[in-house]
Design a protein that fits this description.
8 helices, alpha+beta, binds FE2/S2 (inorganic) cluster, 10% strand, 199 residues, Glutaredoxin
Amino acid sequence: MSSYKSDSSPRSSVLKKNIESPKTPGEKFFPPFEVTKELEAEAKKRIAQYPAEQKRSAVLPLLHEVQHRHGFISPESIEWVASKLDIAPIKVVEVVTFYPGFRQKAPGKIHFRVCRTLSCAMGGSYELMEKLCELTKIDRSGASHGDAISVSPCGEFSVEFAECLASCGTAPVCLVNDDFHEGVTADKAQNLIDSYKDS
Ligand code: FES
């Protein structure tokens, strides 16, 4: 693990604020971040794909690897990625906070990303979101641009709005974990949820 330590300078307080991972009930479905032999081997392979003087370019593949294994990007994983690439943790935070695909807190076991861009909005994606929340008992009232994911009390489900998912002709669309679903109107929400239960 990296020996990164925070200090009290103004710069590090920005880092601290942006590096935090609020606890969610979804954490029980993901293994905590750990630097395993497998993760080290995967990192070595990914870093080797770039010239030695450009190894910082492996930041995206490493973050994807962490999120794939652990569900989200924790402060510990940010420090680990920074140490692997010999860059400051704030540089990793900049990437994590720029791309909405990276999560800084645990989602549910079943994560819904509902497109809210024009075609989908007109096709009923806001109604779909409302129905998903109603059926999974998710309270989205605290959702914001910086904290887009809302998790159900049981931790099994989570939702967030996404921007155009590039299938505007089949609106409304959503992603469930890595699966793409088209034409998902609110009346199909229950069936969609049921198809992932016990998965
Ligand atoms: S607007 Fe939803 S996929 Fe493009």
